[in-house]
Q: What sequence folds into this?
């Protein structure tokens, strides 16, 4: 099922700034409230992007990682001042359990954010993003992405041809399989290099290497992108401010810092939530808009 | 005013004595459609690459090329990049980026054009060529014809004054090729663009060219209008170049009439009526081959590539006899190549049987199946080459076939002589022309001593003479009781060399007969010679048949 | 390799890249430790890995490479990604390191680094980007770079050196990825956990090493020959 998400229609820069700040903040803020916000927002966004069924599948696959990290921390780390019980004379402390859970939440959130990132930042967006900063490398990535499916196709053709020569085996001893594989790879390399020269000629014939090459992209940065980017940057700055004034800092060792629920803290927490939930809101708004449009038809 | 003026141009590759281009002078007017033809290796590509210095081969060059009266060397790079467009042979290789829109913009980016202008020009081109529907696609998802059209469009977007094309249709199927030529014609007529086209497939393009340049061993043989070239070829009788020419010209060439040379089927058919009596001359039907010896049989074969995917083969049944050439014809995606894969055991059907010598193909061991038994010449012979020298390619087969040195040498020599490839032994396989690569690949599989050979699109990209050579080789093989099954788009070739033809459509064989009954029974899907002569001759399907009947009457 | 063609990356350039890397990394570590209160090693390492790639990428970018050079690097990276498909029947056998190293040997350290880093980016475009992307970029990049440097001293023609390099590269790659793994557990780096991670990863490391050695021994000569032919035939990477 191909869903065109509302997010995808935004300019790559907007999306990149959003995801970069999300991921970096998640790595940075170990405050339990912040972690909870990140976990919830990333889950919601992924759910919105892929649908409930796929979300559950992902969560099912991520759960063991969560448990593994949450458990492994107290086993390895015996820091903290509140021992709950002992295993082999090693204290298992409350602090290390809580820290383990916090860490696990962070890692899992990052994984979920990257899932969303991979869904939204398609390769052409990625290339467009870097096209202006590192044009040659962006072009190389584009060429490579063009070549990979071509090579995959060729691998199939080569293995078919070699099979009919009786020279390719995909069953048999490991050594035989390695030898067959290397043979295919070797044929593929010659083919790819020799044919690559045509591509290079085609680049030259079309004037690659002339002075002042520009970078074109079909993504237009319009007013809507500007507004959204402005909002994101504003929220990002507020959160950095919060960190500078210590509202989002937290420690687990030697004892867990007391939670503080002052108005200021809650304000900063809210601004973080607002930033992270922003794309989900955009998605939901778009859904509602379409629903009303369809009902009008 | 001549847009391109070539004066006494000679060129030779490094470390080669003979000249690849020998003292060629010619001038091309603005807006002309120039067709360049000649056998493989006659210097066509070398010549047109000289017009594009960025990709011209290294070597010694003499003489001068003028573009709009300026020496080409003095033309600045930017102008050259935008004003002289170059489209190459292989649709796949010249695509640089991964998206259609990016490919269209690539040239303009190089010319340092700003984004808003690129946006407009790309849009304009996409509309002109009807690319809008696949504008945002990955290039990988395009068909061959679409890819070549994209290549043309991404040159056109740079606003060229001269368009040079090097065998642009040789890798396309006939329908896509015709579409491509029609687009070129449209560009030439509507935009007054000068076009220089190198081509093997002349049937469609020959009549629409303003001038034809025939090259022979690097020299200018003739440079004139299509009619004049057709007429003057008569004096150069028995020249190999004639095999690539359109059917009407080939027939005209062999008959002594005094009128103008016909170029199209329509002109050809009028020309036949004017010169020959319309009594029904007929070619006798072939005598049917001995049908007693079935080597291969497909019984009600069904195949699909995945459980969820649609059927590609729907109950195919066919038989192949010992020592015959059997052609399977049909359009793209009709399932021809899949049939070949089923026959060769690469794909297994989910229903039905494939019997080889009466035994199920799945019961054969790999070695039994592919050595001394069934062999495949793939569409792309490069997939067979492993070594860096032609000679070494044979060694590895000798090893698997466990031949001793003497027997091996004898065998290799024998095959090399039959295929005329002895002189290629020391070369790198990728340095050979398409036709040569195919022959070396064929030699390699002949060493496996096959009883059945499967050919997949064997005439793709071959020039007229190479096709003839291939056809003769097939006949030779047939004499030694080898069964040949080929899958092809090439109606003319199948008509001339097969014993039986079958039409594949929608996953099944819809008709099957000897070539004469097969083609004279079809009204559209038939050879040019048959379409041209069917009103006066019965059963004439090849130009040879028509010539034979013309000479009789 | 009989013909020694001049390769763009001169010894001077290599020295510059090495010094940049050696300078930038400690600076980032220092700044990170100071600013981030000696925590968040995961974040710092993520940034370090990324920054370390920059000098190589930036110089390539500024050099305005020729189309044929661009194509060579693209082709080799595409091969290392698509090549996985050939070896799906052999779990753990991935030709990335070997192809990167061979590119480094034939075209010099810079091309080696680029091919490695690019393979990482592109394969993650297919299989999903993650925090590991910069680590893979750096690991494969450095491996390609080292192969290139060794080849400059004509060492890679020696089978023993090649084998050692294969083992070394398997171990190095494994060590780098283990750092990422350890850091991802709690953002802190402890040697104890690192050892455990390394021990836990031994079977994988062995497969890496074995596959690298096998690939290098079997591939380096034929691919090397092919690349030399390409270099000669098309006047590639000559000044």
A:
């Amino acid at each position: 099922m191909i869903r065109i998400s509302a997010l995808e229609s935004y300019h790559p820069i907007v999306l990149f700034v959003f995801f970069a700040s999300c991921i970096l903040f998640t790595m940075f803020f170990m405050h339990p409230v912040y972690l909870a916000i990140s976990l919830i927002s990333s889950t919601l966004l992924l759910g919105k992007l892929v649908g409930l069924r796929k979300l559950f599948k992902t969560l099912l696959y991520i759960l063991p990682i969560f448990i593994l990290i949450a458990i492994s921390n107290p086993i390895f780390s015996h820091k903290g001042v509140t021992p709950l019980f002992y295993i082999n004379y090693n204290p298992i402390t409350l602090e290390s359990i809580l820290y383990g859970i916090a860490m696990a939440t962070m890692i899992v959130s990052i994984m979920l954010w990257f899932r969303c990132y991979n869904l939204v930042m398609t390769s052409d967006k990625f290339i467009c993003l870097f096209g202006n900063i590192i044009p040659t490398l962006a072009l190389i990535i584009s060429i490579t992405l063009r070549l990979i499916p071509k090579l995959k196709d060729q691998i199939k053709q080569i293995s078919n041809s070699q099979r009919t020569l009786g020279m390719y085996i995909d069953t048999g001893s490991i050594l035989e399989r390695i030898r067959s594989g290397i043979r295919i790879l070797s044929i593929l390399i010659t083919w790819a290099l020799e044919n690559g020269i045509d591509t290079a000629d085609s680049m030259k014939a079309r004037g690659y290497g002339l002075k002042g090459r520009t970078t074109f992209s079909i993504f237009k940065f319009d007013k809507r992108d500007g507004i959204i980017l402005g909002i994101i940057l504003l929220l990002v700055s507020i959160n950095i401010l919060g960190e500078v004034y210590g509202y989002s800092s937290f420690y687990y060792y030697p004892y867990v810092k007391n939670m503080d629920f002052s108005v200021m803290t809650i304000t900063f927490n809210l601004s973080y939530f607002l930033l992270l939930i922003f794309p989900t809101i955009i998605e939901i708004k778009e859904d509602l808009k379409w629903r009303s449009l369809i009902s009008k038809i | 005013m001549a847009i391109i003026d070539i004066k006494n141009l000679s060129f030779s590759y490094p470390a080669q004595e003979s000249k690849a281009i020998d003292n060629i002078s010619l001038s091309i007017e603005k807006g002309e459609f120039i067709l360049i033809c000649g056998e493989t290796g006659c210097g066509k590509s070398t010549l047109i690459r000289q017009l594009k210095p960025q990709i011209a081969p290294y070597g010694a060059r003499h003489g001068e090329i003028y573009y709009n009266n300026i020496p080409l060397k003095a033309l600045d790079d930017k102008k050259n990049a935008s004003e002289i467009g170059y489209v190459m042979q292989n649709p796949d290789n010249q695509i640089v980026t991964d998206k259609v829109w990016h490919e269209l913009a690539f040239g303009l980016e190089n010319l340092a054009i700003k984004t808003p202008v690129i946006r407009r020009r790309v849009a304009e081109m996409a509309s002109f060529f009807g690319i809008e529907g696949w504008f945002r696609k990955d290039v990988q998802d395009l068909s061959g014809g679409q890819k070549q059209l994209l290549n043309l469009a991404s040159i056109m977007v740079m606003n060229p004054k001269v368009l040079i094309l090097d065998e642009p249709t040789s890798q396309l199927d006939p329908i896509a090729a015709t579409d491509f030529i029609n687009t070129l014609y449209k560009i030439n007529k509507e935009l007054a663009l000068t076009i220089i086209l190198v081509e093997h497939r002349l049937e469609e393009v020959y009549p629409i060219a303003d001038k034809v340049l025939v090259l022979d061993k690097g020299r200018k043989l003739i440079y004139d209008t299509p009619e004049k070239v057709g007429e003057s070829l008569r004096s150069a009788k028995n020249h190999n170049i004639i095999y690539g020419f359109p059917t009407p010209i080939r027939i005209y060439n062999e008959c002594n009439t005094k009128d103008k040379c016909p170029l199209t089927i329509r002109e050809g058919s009028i020309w036949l009526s004017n010169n020959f009596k319309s009594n029904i001359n007929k070619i006798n039907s072939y005598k049917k081959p001995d049908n007693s010896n079935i080597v291969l049989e497909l019984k009600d074969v069904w195949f699909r590539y995945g459980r969820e995917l649609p059927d590609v083969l729907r109950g195919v049944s066919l038989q192949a006899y010992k020592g015959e050439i059997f052609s399977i014809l049909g359009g793209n995606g009709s399932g021809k190549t899949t049939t070949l894969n089923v026959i060769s055991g690469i794909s297994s059907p989910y229903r039905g049987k494939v019997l080889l010598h009466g035994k199920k193909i799945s019961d054969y061991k790999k070695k039994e199946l592919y050595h001394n038994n069934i062999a495949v010449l793939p569409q792309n012979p490069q997939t067979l080459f492993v070594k860096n020298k032609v000679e070494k390619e044979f060694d590895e087969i000798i090893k698997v076939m466990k031949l001793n040195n003497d027997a091996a040498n004898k065998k290799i020599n024998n095959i090399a002589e039959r295929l005329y490839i002895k002189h290629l032994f020391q070369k790198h396989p990728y340095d050979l022309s398409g036709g040569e690569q195919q022959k070396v690949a064929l030699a390699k599989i002949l060493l496996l001593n096959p009883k059945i050979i499967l050919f997949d699109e064997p005439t793709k990209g071959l020039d007229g003479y190479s096709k003839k050579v291939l056809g003769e080789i097939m006949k030779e093989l047939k004499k030694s009781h080898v069964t040949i099954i080929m899958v092809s788009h090439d109606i003319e070739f199948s008509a001339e060399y097969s014993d039986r033809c079958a039409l594949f459509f929608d996953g099944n064989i819809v008709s099957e007969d000897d070539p004469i009954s097969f083609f004279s029974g079809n009204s559209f899907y038939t050879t040019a010679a048959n379409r041209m002569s069917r009103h006066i001759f019965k059963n004439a399907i090849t130009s040879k048949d028509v010539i034979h009947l013309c000479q009789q009457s | 390799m009989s013909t020694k063609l001049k390769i763009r990356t001169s010894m001077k350039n290599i020295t510059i890249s090495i010094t940049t890397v050696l300078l930038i990394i400690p600076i980032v570590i220092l700044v990170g430790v100071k600013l981030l209160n000696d925590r968040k090693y995961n974040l710092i390492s993520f940034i370090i890995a990324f920054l370390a790639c920059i000098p190589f990428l930036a110089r390539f970018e500024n050099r305005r490479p020729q189309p044929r050079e661009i194509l060579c690097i693209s082709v080799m990276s595409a091969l290392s990604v698509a090549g996985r498909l050939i070896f799906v029947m052999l779990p753990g056998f991935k030709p990335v390191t070997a192809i990167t190293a061979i590119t480094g040997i034939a075209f010099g350290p810079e091309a080696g680094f680029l091919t490695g880093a690019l393979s990482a980016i592109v394969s993650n475009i297919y299989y999903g980007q993650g925090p590991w992307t910069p680590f893979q970029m750096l690991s494969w990049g450095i491996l390609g770079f080292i192969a290139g440097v060794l080849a400059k001293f004509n060492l890679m023609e020696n089978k023993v050196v090649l084998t050692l390099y294969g083992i070394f590269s398997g171990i190095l790659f494994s060590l780098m990825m283990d750092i990422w793994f350890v850091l991802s557990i709690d953002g802190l780096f402890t040697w104890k956990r690192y050892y455990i991670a390394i021990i836990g990863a031994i079977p994988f490391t062995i497969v890496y090493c074995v596959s690298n050695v096998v690939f290098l021994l079997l591939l380096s000569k034929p691919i090397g020959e092919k690349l030399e032919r390409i270099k000669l035939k098309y006047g590639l990477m000559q000044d």
About this structure: Residues 9-121+223-296 of chain A form one domain. The mean pLDDT of chain A is 88. The CA atoms of residues 169 and 176 of chain A lie 7 Å apart. Chain A touches chain C through 66 residues (CB under 8 Å).
